[in-house]
Amino acid sequence: MIDDKCFWPEKVSVGEVIYPPGGVFGPRLQRNLQLVMLHSGRMTVWIDGVPRTSLADTVCVLFPGHEERFAYAEECETWHSWLHIFIPQLSETLLARLARLPWPLQLSPAMTDLIREALALRNSPLSTADTLLKALAVQMIWRYIGEGELLMDGATTLPDPAVENARHFIHAHLGEPLTLDMIATAAAVSPPHLIRMFRQELNTTPMAYLWERRVTQGIELLRQTGLSVGEIAERCGFRTSYHFSRRVRQAGGLSPLEVRHQAWECR
User: Fold this and answer.
1) Secondary structure of the chain: what % helix, strand, coil (to 5)?
2) What per-residue confidence (pLDDT) applies to 1?
3) pTM higher than 0.70, yes or no?
4) What is the architecture, at CATH level 2, of domain 161-264?
5) Are residues 94 and 75 in contact, defined by beta-carbon separation less than 8 angstroms?
């Protein structure tokens, strides 16, 4: 039996399809652990004769060993993607942990990014594409479990999509001269709404979060690279080395060079 804390798929496949209105599929015997991401439309799946329905922007898990039959929205197209994960001996603990989660879950921006990356690997020339796909599958299962257990622990919803999109945008553009308006535009909400959601979910503001991430990234580069202080400051979005040094000292009481010397000190 494979330990649920350290499982590795034997085989993974990924795909996507758009069903026309009234589309159907099955019956079939499910042979894999499967995640189904519903991007638009609606899906009803009969599992051993019992119907369950998923709406757009949700993700659900299907378990091996069950008969399934699918029917899709009558009034519109239904677009969904899927991930099949074959593990010869699934841990009973892992299965039980998945089975107790709410069904379906909200499709988070992070899960959407993972399935997009998995789909992109279908045509990848990399010799490591298969291993990368298996690693993504493991990430997606643990994220599904983590997001589901977050709801079970009392969270009424997952992190607001606007906050998640803003965070992703900030992380991808740390070195650029970002403004609140730019971040809000990337998150597709107004600046006041984004500030309100950041305060509600993260107890901070978008710009304070941006500068905290810049400092954190700068300290990491000081510890892990040989880049000059000036180069790190520029890469992390600081206008001057002085500004970077001041923020680093405010964060930890040490200058950038002291941070580096402490990390590089031979013990």
Assistant:
1) 45, 20, 30
2) 41
3) no
4) Orthogonal Bundle (1.10)
5) no
